[in-house]
Specification:
The structure holds 2 protein chains of 2 kinds. By secondary structure, chain A is of the alpha/beta class. Chain A has 13 helices and 13 strands. The two termini of chain A are 24 Å apart. In chain A, strand 8 (284-286), helix 11 (293-307) and strand 9 form a beta-alpha-beta unit. Chain B has one domain: Orthogonal Bundle (Non-ribosomal Peptide Synthetase Peptidyl Carrier Protein, Chain A), CATH 1.10.1200.10. Chain B is 50% helix and 0% strand. Chain B is mainly α. The radius of gyration of chain B is 11 Å and the shape is globular. In chain B, helix 1 (8-21) crosses helix 2 and helix 1 packs across helix 3. The A-B interface holds A 52-58, 117-118, 120-122, 125 and B 22-24, 39, 43, 46-47, 50, 53-54.
């Protein structure tokens, strides 16, 4: 069976670098960093710029971010006024790590302080982890398959991979996909802090010898995926192609990755096999690169095992050096950043990378962006990695148009 | 909310202000407007219940809202409970 190709026709993002996918791409590429005082909030984001008071009240902050990113992606795809396909054949799969945790905390405060009768009737619809996909379905009238996926910090990539498969296998003509996260809350800070995952110095410097944990951030990334033949038939502007997707489980430890990155390597290899692309055909890697001791070393080992000699040459950078770790939203925002980087034939930098660690000797694109040199005129290809607590691994293979 | 009294006019003002704070357009929040017209749904009515129960120390059940159609019906229901 020949599977349909799946193209990207719109992207949207709200990140600590600002509102908009181009803002993320241009500011990261120019070396800007959205981290302030050890966190990466979307300080420029005002929900009422994007939705009514009622819509904003009916959405946790994570969903508000998804709505804004979704509006941008659908507008770019040319879907703002009218859906190009039967709505029953357009679905939505979004990812999240911890859903509406801010809503949960606020309502727990009410329960403790003033009793059960004070808990909001909106608490459940706001906090449920599927609130994001539900909101985009309602907002845009998407009546195909609609659900959310949850796999900690791999959720965004799993969502996009799932959406890819649904189009390939004929369950949908097009999918709105991506992820959102709003984890800058007291409990979330305390909990990630308690497990020693957060950088005590407040620095996100992936792959650097001095790295000491991640910097938590919030945001959302949304992509419009369409069956390639249908998108071309309607004359859509095509940004790129989702060439492949691979997923695996570590079955090793609840939080630590396998030291050699065994599961991550399998996800990358499956994605490349799925795309029909050899290691030599990889022009850029958007690494998971969290700035934790364990991830960055294991990911480096995994890249060496999958890419062989190519690993020494291919530019590898981490968006988290510019916006921190957006947890479940990371994979979606990074897929958006990756496709725009490929389009511009550029590898954005790993900001703050200065000190190599022994055995971690790859091209991490320190400091400033580099041009992707394409010798034979073919469009550039990238891998975008996401690994989550629980040993969940997902890798996407993306190609520019 | 601006008013604290329990006279019918005060209660009406409080109910309208509460519905507006949930996102309903204050311009169209008239007594004759149906809940559908002002985009007030069952979740809004539960929130309103919480507000007026705390404010007036009354008790409302979801069954009380069964025959409610307009903003005026909501106001009258709350006024009746407050003065009863």
């Amino acid at each position: 069976m020949t599977l349909r190709d799946v193209v990207i026709t719109g992207v949207g993002a709200v990140t600590p670098l600002g509102v908009g996918a181009r803002t993320l791409h241009e500011r990261w590429t120019s070396g800007a960093c959205g981290i302030r005082d050890g966190e990466a909030p979307c300080a420029d984001f005002d929900p009422t710029d994007h939705m009514t008071v009622k819509q904003a009240r009916r959405a946790d902050r994570s969903t508000q971010l998804a709505i804004a990113a979704g509006d941008e992606a659908l507008a770019e795809a040319g879907w703002a006024d009218e859906l190009p396909y039967d709505p029953e054949w357009i679905g939505c799969v979004l990812g999240t790590g911890i859903g509406g945790i801010g809503t949960l905390e606020d309502n727990h405060d009410l329960l403790r302080d003033t009793g059960a009768e004070s808990v909001s009737p909106l608490a459940i619809p706001l906090m449920m982890s599927n609130a994001g996909s539900a909101a985009l379905s309602l907002r845009h009238g998407l009546r195909g398959p609609v659900f959310s996926v949850v796999s900690a910090c791999a959720a965004g990539s799993h969502a996009i991979g799932t959406a890819l498969r649904m189009i390939q296998h004929g369950e949908a003509e097009a999918m709105v996909t991506g992820a959102a996260e709003a984890p800058l809350t007291p409990l979330s800070r305390a909990a990630f802090g308690s497990m020693g995952a957060i950088s005590p110095t407040g620095m996100s410097r992936p792959f650097d010898n001095r790295r000491d944990g991640f910097v938590m951030g919030e945001g959302a990334g949304v992509l419009v995926l369409e069956a390639g033949d249908a998108a071309r038939a309607r004359g859509a502007n095509i940004l790129g192609t989702v060439r492949g997707y691979g997923a695996s489980g570590d079955a090793h430890h609840i939080t630590a990755p396998h030291a050699e990155g065994r599961g991550g390597a399998r996800a990358m290899q499956i994605a490349l096999n799925d795309a029909g692309i050899e290691a030599l055909g990889v022009d850029y890697v958007n690494a998971h690169g969290t700035s934790t001791q364990l991830n960055d070393r294991a990911e480096t080992m995994a890249l060496k095992s999958v890419l062989g000699d190519r690993a020494q040459k291919v530019p590898i950078s981490s968006t988290k050096s510019a916006i921190g770790h957006l947890l479940g939203a990371a994979g979606a925002v990074e897929a958006v950043a990756t496709i725009l980087a490929l389009r511009d034939r550029i590898a954005p930098p790993t900001i703050g990378y200065e000190e190599p660690e022994e055995g971690m000797d790859l091209n991490y694109v320190p400091g400033t962006a580099r041009a992707l040199k394409m010798s034979n005129g073919r469009p550039p290809v990238a891998l975008s990695n996401s690994f989550g607590f629980g040993g969940h691994n997902a890798s996407l293979c993306l190609e520019a148009a | 909310m601006a008013t604290t009294g329990t006279q019918p006019q005060d209660v009406e003002t409080a109910v309208i202000e509460a519905l507006a704070s949930f996102g309903a357009d204050p311009e169209v929040l008239t007594r004759d407007a149906t809940l559908e017209e002002v985009d007030v749904d069952s979740l809004d009515l539960v929130e309103l219940t919480q507000v007026v129960e705390e404010r007036y120390e009354i008790s409302l059940e979801s069954a009380d809202f069964k025959k409610i159609k307009t903003v005026g019906d909501v106001v009258d229901l709350v006024v009746a409970r407050v003065s009863g």
